[in-house]
Design brief:
It is a single chain. The protein is an alpha+beta fold and 114 residues long. 32% of the residues lie in helices and 32% in strands. The protein has a single domain, classed as Alpha-Beta Plaits (2-Layer Sandwich). β3 and β4 form a beta hairpin. The longest helix has 12 residues.
Length: 114
């Protein structure tokens, strides 16, 4: 059985976070539908930010990752989105400066589900 690889950093609150998922390329719509069905079945609030081939960006509760990890068969990877911007060097540098790197890198506990 394929397990979703996920990292959850403990500094994050329970409020909605932007996450992105690497989906299986076996079918054009089934992987994103599966992920949405899991979120609905588990009664998580979510908002689809972007759905492009094999990538689904959503805003949802960080705790939803546990359900997705346990149930998703067509999701390969889940990641916390640290920032999102245009592919322009100056914008990338600006966004990198805003990311709370100390909080991200200082935490002693990171959960890894495989």
């Amino acid at each position: 059985m394929n397990r979703v690889k996920t990292q959850i950093c403990h500094f994050m609150s329970d409020e909605g976070k932007n996450l992105f998922f690497l989906l299986s390329g076996e079918h054009s719509t089934l992987p994103s539908s599966e992920l949405e069905s899991i979120l609905k079945a588990e009664e998580y609030q979510y908002e689809i930010l972007e759905n492009i081939r094999q990538i689904l960006r959503i805003k949802t509760e960080i705790e939803s990752i546990k359900s997705i990890t346990a149930r998703a068969a067509m999701t390969r990877l889940c990641c916390l989105e640290l920032f999102n911007c245009n592919a322009k060097t100056q914008e990338i540098y600006q966004e990198i400066e805003i990311v709370p790197w100390r909080k991200l890198l200082k935490k002693e506990k990171i959960l890894l589900f495989e």
